[in-house]
Design brief:
- It is a single chain.
- This protein is an alpha/beta fold.
- It has a domain of 59 residues: Alpha-Beta Plaits, CATH 3.30.70.
- It contains 19 helices and 15 strands.
- Strands 10-9-12-13 form a four-stranded parallel β-sheet, with helices on both faces. A three-stranded parallel β-sheet has the order 11-15-14.
- The radius of gyration is 25 Å and the shape is globular.
- The two termini are 39 Å apart.
C-alpha cells in the first residue's frame, strides 16, 4: 500500500494538518480540540466505519497521539483533552510508548486461518481432503469445507488446490513485525508488547484499518517556532521525491525556510563523517582480526534489535555517531543558541533522540509525513516554491545512506579509496526478519571479517514509516540526487565544521 493515497493516509495527513493548525492559530485550545473531531468527520452518514460515532471516536484518539499524548483507557472516564496542558509546551514532549494500537480502530483480523472461498469447483479429486493430515477437510453440498477445530494451519490444502480456492488469512501488522511484538488483547484485537517492540513502524504502515499510530512532536515544534526560538532543520538523505516527483531539493530547502526554520542542513553531512569513521574502524579493528565483525549503527531499530535479542553483539555495534547526531553536533557548534529538528522517514528516530546521551543534541524529531501536515496548514505548495538556494552540504556517499545497502557501499568506497591495500567484506540485511537471520549467522561465527549493515525497513530508510511515496520512486529519486552530487566521497579528514567547508 506504500505510495497509494488510501483513506488511511488521507486521514493521517488531515490529522497532522489540523493539529498543525491548532498549534499555529488556536487561542482556545481546549474548545478547539473538542471541536476538531466534528470538523474532520463533518458528515452524517459514515464513510469508513459502520457509524460516524466510531469514526469520531477514532479521530479523537488520533488527535491525542498527534499532539504527543497517549491513548485514553477504554474503561475509564478520561476526557479527550486530559493531559493537554502538559503537551502544550515548546519543548520535546514524549510519553512512552511510541507505537500504539487504537482499540476502537482495530478489526481483530484473523492471525492465521485457512478458508475455502466461493472459487471451489467441488472437483471429483478433492486433493485438499486427501493431503490434510488431520482430516479437517469436509465435503458439504459438494464443496470443500475446513473444520477450524481440526485445522493445524499447515497450508497443504491451499498449496495443492488446482483452482486456488483456499484463502490464507493473516494479520497484516503481525506479518510485518519482524520481532513478534504484536499480541492479542482479551477481545482478539492487536496490541503491542512494548518490551519487544523496536519502533520501526512497519506494523503501522501495514495495517489497512489505520489502527496503529505513533506519537508526534509537531505541535510542540510549532509552539517552539512561535516562541521566537532559533530553530534549525536537518533533513535525512531519503527526502528527495517525498514532497512531489518534480519538487527539487532546492525547493524543499526554501519551503522549510518559509515555514520558519532559520537554516537547513543535510543529515548526509553526518553520514559522510560516519562513513569515514566506520571505514577507519573496519581497517584498524575488523580487518586486523581484533574484532570479529562490525555492525553499523545508523538504524535505531536495528541497533535495538541487536541489543535486545543478541546482547552478545553489543560490543560489535559501531561507536560512530549516527548521521542525525553527528550533524546535530555540527549544527550546534555553528549555532550554539539554536534548537535542532531532525526531519526524516523514521519513527524510531524519535526514540533515539529521547536517549539520555542524545537529548541535548536533537531537540525534536518529525517525519516527512508530519512535515507535509505543516506545509498543508501553512498553504505551502512545494511545486510552486521558487528555490532560493540549493542543497550543497554532502557527497554522493552520504546521500546514499537512505537506500538499503547505501551505508555499506559508502563505507566500502571509503576503504577502497583511502586504504587500498585492505580487502573489505560487506554484508547487508533489510527487514527485521532478515536482520535477525544475519545476526544469528554472525553469532555463529559465519560473518567474521565482515562489516554488516542492518536496516529494519525493507528497502532501507526510503521505506520508513514516515515516508510519503512508493519505494521504487524513492529509490530512483535518491539515485538521481547522488548522481548530481559535486563530490562522490568525503575527504579523509573531516572532523569539524571548519574542515567540512570544502564541501561548499
Amino acid at each position: 500500500m506504500r505510495g497509494i493515497d488510501t483513506q488511511v493516509r488521507k486521514t493521517r495527513r488531515r490529522i497532522f494538518k489540523e493539529v498543525s493548525n491548532l498549534a499555529y492559530n488556536s487561542t482556545n485550545l481546549i474548545d478547539d480540540v473538542e471541536a476538531l473531531p466534528y470538523k474532520i468527520v463533518d458528515y452524517d452518514e459514515p464513510e469508513c466505519r459502520e457509524s460516524v460515532y466510531r469514526e469520531r471516536a477514532i479521530v479523537r484518539e488520533r488527535i491525542r497521539l498527534a499532539m504527543g499524548m497517549s491513548l485514553r483507557p477504554e474503561n475509564a472516564p478520561v476526557h479527550v483533552t486530559q493531559g493537554l496542558e502538559e503537551s502544550n509546551i515548546d519543548e520535546k514532549y514524549y510519553e512512552p510508548p511510541l507505537m500504539q494500537v487504537i482499540p476502537s480502530a482495530c478489526n481483530a483480523c484473523p492471525e492465521n486461518r485457512y478458508e475455502v472461498t466461493n472459487k471451489c469447483m467441488g472437483c471429483l479429486a478433492h486433493p485438499c481432503r486427501e493431503v490434510c493430515p488431520k482430516g479437517a477437510i469436509e465435503i458439504r453440498d459438494g464443496k470443500s469445507f475446513i473444520n477450524q477445530e481440526k485445522c493445524i494451519k499447515c497450508g497443504k490444502c491451499k498449496s495443492i488446490c488446482p483452482y486456488d480456492a483456499i484463502s490464507h488469512q493473516v494479520r497484516p501488522c503481525a506479518v510485518a513485525c519482524g520481532v513478534n511484538a504484536i499480541k492479542n488483547d482479551r477481545m482478539g484485537r492487536a496490541c503491542i508488547d512494548s518490551s519487544m517492540c523496536v519502533s520501526c513502524g512497519q506494523c503501522m504502515v501495514s495495517c489497512p484499518f489505520g489502527a496503529i499510530a505513533d506519537k508526534s512532536q509537531i505541535f510542540q515544534l510549532i509552539r517552539a517556532m512561535q516562541s521566537g526560538r532559533k530553530i534549525l532543520a536537518q533533513i535525512a538523505p531519503a527526502f528527495v521525491g517525498q514532497f512531489g516527483a518534480n519538487v527539487t531539493p532546492g525547493q524543499v530547502k526554501t519551503a522549510l525556510k518559509q515555514l520558519g526554520f532559520a537554516e537547513v542542513y543535510e543529515t548526509a553531512i553526518g553520514a559522510d563523517l560516519g562513513a569515514l569513521a566506520e571505514a577507519e574502524h573496519y581497517v584498524n579493528e575488523v580487518a586486523t582480526g581484533k574484532q570479529a565483525f562490525s555492525l553499523t549503527s545508523c538504524c535505531p531499530s536495528w541497533s535495538v534489535l541487536a541489543k535486545n535479542f543478541f546482547p552478545e553483539t553489543i560490543d560489535k555495534i559501531s561507536n560512530a555517531l549516527t548521521p542525525m547526531v553527528a550533524t546535530a553536533r555540527i549544527m550546534k557548534e555553528e549555532h550554539p543558541d539554536a534548537s535542532v529538528v531532525f526531519i526524516g522517514p523514521c519513527a524510531s528516530k524519535k526514540l533515539e533522540a529521547s536517549r539520555r546521551t542524545i537529548r541535548s543534541e536533537v531537540d525534536f524529531v518529525i517525519t516527512f509525513e508530519e512535515l507535509m501536515g505543516m506545509f498543508d496548514a501553512k498553504g505551502i505548495a512545494l511545486e510552486e516554491v521558487v528555490a532560493e538556494d540549493e542543497m550543497e552540504d554532502a557527497t554522493a556517499a552520504g546521500r546514499g545512506y537512505g537506500v538499503a545497502g547505501g551505508v555499506a557501499s559508502a563505507i566500502e568506497a571509503c576503504v577502497k579509496e583511502y586504504y587500498p591495500d585492505v580487502e573489505v567484506h560487506i554484508e547487508h540485511a533489510e527487514s527485521l526478519a532478515e536482520c535477525k537471520k544475519m545476526l544469528l549467522l554472525a553469532k555463529a561465527g559465519k560473518k567474521n571479517g565482515c562489516l554488516i549493515e542492518g536496516m529494519a525497513c525493507p528497502g532501507g530508510c526510503i521505506a520508513g514509516a514516515g515516508t510519503n511515496i512508493a519505494i521504487p520512486a524513492a529509490m530512483k529519486s535518491v539515485a538521481g540526487f547522488q548522481a548530481d552530487s559535486k563530490e562522490k566521497l568525503p575527504k579523509k579528514k573531516i572532523r569539524n565544521s571548519e574542515e567540512r567547508k570544502w564541501l561548499k
